């Protein structure tokens, strides 16, 4: 059987660059070399595209772009070519590819922009399409669509630099503190703060506006957070529900990657009836947002066991220790099987 040529793209200009390197290493290490010929394409922090032919250690320690094996590379925009073009010693080297596995978290990778480039080029790729990627990245738009589809969402207010202070104060008075302040289009809890009073609220808004020109103010849901890993397009595979235990504060960037004070419970500490209800809700949200391939649907369970939407990650953390693969592993799907399924789904699109 002829090997499929898989181009793994990693790095990128987003604030989640380091997370991307870790995820990419796990993917590259676990792709079956008997089935796939793997091409490694890195994007530096300043946006340079390089084909990298060195060892994974240099991706892990973020020195890959200094390696002598790196050559400038681009994706051919000519539909039907389905190839990358390397520039080496002023010579153009064309290489056909079957599919792109984009391991780019956050802006310019998870938000539909890279997916748009691949669509124009006619190249198949793993994960959600342009529209779903873009909508899920925007917390404001995602909440509006999920609410319209009939699911519970937190009370929220989208604001920008021009928003009147009275509108913000009225929202705070209506929902009460604490209030979460979130950049609309950032991932991994970057730029998010939890405000306990008016002073902290406006401080948080100033902080969030450093990351995005739109900010979402969101009511606090008293309860706990759960997650669902979903694979597929029509026939959906849902992993075991997990639960985040956060003794204080919230699940910010540091907690997500250190678990210094938090704990992930897999399976979640809930009964089977609630677990199944969460899975069905997650599948409904996944479909309402037009997701395909994969996503992690995050929700809250409040004190009355009401399930409230939080967000969807169309490319969640993908190391072998990350939540998404672990939820699927707990339900009996190995990491390598996840990769095979994602590539199969992407090629079928």
Automatic annotation (TrEMBL):
Location of this chain's protein in the cell: Cytoplasm
Name listed for the protein in its UniProt record: D-alanine--D-alanine ligase
Classification via InterPro entries: ATP-grasp (IPR011761), D-Ala_lig_Van_CS (IPR000291), D_ala_D_ala (IPR005905), Dala_Dala_lig_C (IPR011095), Dala_Dala_lig_N (IPR011127)
Key words of the record: ATP-binding, Cell shape, Cell wall biogenesis/degradation, Cytoplasm, Ligase, Magnesium, Manganese, Metal-binding, Nucleotide-binding, Peptidoglycan synthesis
Pathway: Cell wall biogenesis; peptidoglycan biosynthesis
Family membership: Belongs to the D-alanine--D-alanine ligase family.
Keyword Nucleotide-binding: yes
Enzyme Commission number: 6.3.2.4
